[in-house]
Design brief:
The protein is of the alpha/beta class. It contains 16 helices and 16 strands. The structure holds adenosine-5'-diphosphate and calcium ion.
Length: 505
């Protein structure tokens, strides 16, 4: 039997000696299986880390900017998972409170709280109900309330109590209503513009901040020189970088207060006359005002006039207007190596600046946001000399108060920037007149909220493994690769089995 079987044509098929090779034992297949398993594990792991943002939940915050001229309610939103990253918070909605600023309610404090109702109701609708209770609400009052506090502290407290009471009546998380300092107003404005420009986590330069309100104005930037006065220096650490800022807020140098100051100075020189001839107003402008409406401010000593009323007449002379505005800056003394005005230290301006609030409203209305300094002056001179009649005909939909004051306001802006802050025709182009960056308004409110909610950490937070786009591409390529490997493995398996079967046959 042994002999006969040794003579067969197919010795492999010999009984007892046939061995079908199992393809899974081959090292290549083991390797492929290992790669596939590892690939799947890596994909699952990355998915767990990266999947979170796909299920974004938004959080919200509300800040009320109680300015001297009016109050605005800002609603911010940000993805809950990414709250410590720069550029994540955006403005969802704004609401302008009807009527004047809260400081105008000094004789009727209850009215201040009541005035907020409409906008706060709107906030309730804009923010999903299940988020209401965890949405912080802050009210920050600026220079109008600083002035009221100087004039009548009790009245200012009553107004603040009234707005606090009103805000506590909503389902949000009330966090306080207070007068913020000029330093805070400057520093938070700077944080806002640099947060929105995503300058804070990069080693690139920062943007200085120029804010012009009705009652005060702020300048904030990173200076090249040492800051000689303690009051003007602010240091903070954001996302792992140290910032040394220069900031100053000039109370009474908002555009509405400066208008009063310069009119008051002109009235002083015409004590007995009941006519104020004003080069900062258009020719043909003629308005009867009360003397009290000019002197009703703690920014100026009241001057006794012969009459209660006066006629405010426009002359439309830009260069005379600038001469009169220069008088509100005291440059006769400086206890430091250099000053802006009124004996306030200021290092030389450096880098790019964002100029917002009334800087923007005024320069944008006059189409002066991108001219040279000389060009701006020339256009302004022509603008101021335009007859008032023509102005009202050309701009029937513009508020008359604003329209009548643009010549004055723009002349003040130019004088403040050039004579006050010492911008020159060379670095004029570094001033960007801006309203918004992306969806969000430039102003102190966003920076204030980021700070109060600890959303800008001192040290840089962890970043996701890779950007979202990169992650999707990576996952796609990786899936394709795994598919390819599976296909290869399958083809290899088929071939090996076929060879084995052939071998058996
Ligand atoms: N469209 C506009 N045109 C001109 N000025 C404007 C416009 N909108 C607002 N303003 C002015 O901007 C200034 C805003 O100041 P505000 O923030 O109320 O005061 P402050 O910051 O000093 O407390 C006011 O002088 C207001 O009249
Ligand atoms: Ca303001």
């Amino acid at each position: 039997m042994n002999q006969s079987s040794s003579q067969t044509a197919f010795p492999q098929a010999e009984e007892g000696k046939v061995k079908v090779k199992n393809p899974w034992y081959r090292p290549v297949v083991i390797f492929l299986a290992a790669v596939i398993t590892m690939g799947i594990i890596i994909m699952v792991a990355i998915s767990v880390v990266q999947y979170k943002p796909l299920h974004q939940k938004y959080k919200y915050g509300i800040v009320l900017d109680a300015g001297s001229s009016h109050t605005s309610v800002f609603i911010y939103e940000w993805p809950a998972e990414k709250e410590n990253n720069t550029g994540m918070v955006r403005q969802k909605h704004t609401c302008n409170v009807k009527g004047k600023g809260i400081s105008s309610y000094s004789n009727n404090p209850k009215g201040a709280g009541a005035s907020l109702q409409e906008c706060m109701q709107e906030a309730k609708q804009k923010i999903p109900t299940h988020r209401h209770h965890e949405t912080p609400v802050y009210l920050g009052a600026t220079a109008g309330m600083r002035l009221l506090k100087m004039e009548n502290e009790e009245a200012s407290e009553n107004v603040l109590d009234s707005v606090a009471h009103s805000l506590k009546g909503y389902p949000f998380s009330y966090q306080g209503a207070r007068i913020i300092t000029g330093q805070e107003e400057g520093a938070f404005g700077w944080i806002t513009v640099n947060y929105l420009s995503e300058n804070l986590r990069k080693p690139t330069g920062t943007l200085g901040a120029l804010d012009l309100g009705g009652a005060s104005t702020q300048i904030t930037f990173v200076p090249q020189q040492e800051i000689e006065s303690h009051d003007n220096s602010i240091n903070f650490r954001l996302y792992g970088n140290d910032y040394h800022l220069y900031t100053h807020s000039f109370l009474c140098y908002g555009k509405d207060q400066v208008l009063k100051l310069s009119m008051g100075k002109k009235l002083e020189s015409t004590l007995k006359d009941d006519v104020l001839r004003d080069p900062c107003f258009h020719p043909g402008f003629n308005f009867t005002r009360t003397v009290q409406s000019v002197f009703n401010t703690p920014c100026m000593k009241e001057v006794k006039m012969a009459n209660e009323n006066f006629f405010h007449l426009g002359l439309g002379d830009w260069s005379q207007c600038q001469q009169s505005i220069r008088k509100v800056f005291n440059t006769s003394f400086c206890p430091y190596s250099r000053c802006s005005f009124n004996g306030v230290f200021q290092p030389s301006v450096d880098g790019d600046f964002g100029a917002f609030s009334a800087f923007f409203f005024v320069m944008d209305f006059l189409n002066l946001t991108s001219d040279t300094l000389a060009g701006t002056k020339q256009k302004l001179a022509t603008y101021c000399s335009t007859p008032w009649k023509k102005m009202t005909e050309n701009h029937p939909n513009t508020k008359e108060k604003y329209l009548s004051e643009y010549c004055f306001s723009a002349t003040y802006i130019l004088t403040l920037l050039e004579d006050g802050y010492k911008f020159t025709s060379d670095n004029w182009k570094d001033i960007r007149f801006i309203k918004k960056i992306g969806d969000s308004d430039a102003g102190w409110t966003l920076g204030y909220m980021l700070n109060m909610t600890n959303m800008i950490p001192a040290e840089a937070p962890d970043t996701p493994l890779m950007p979202y786009g990169g992650y999707v591409t990576f996952m796609l390529l990786f899936s394709l690769l795994i598919l390819l490997l599976l296909l290869l493995a399958y083809m290899y398996f088929r071939r090996s089995t076929r060879t084995a079967q052939k071998d058996i046959i």
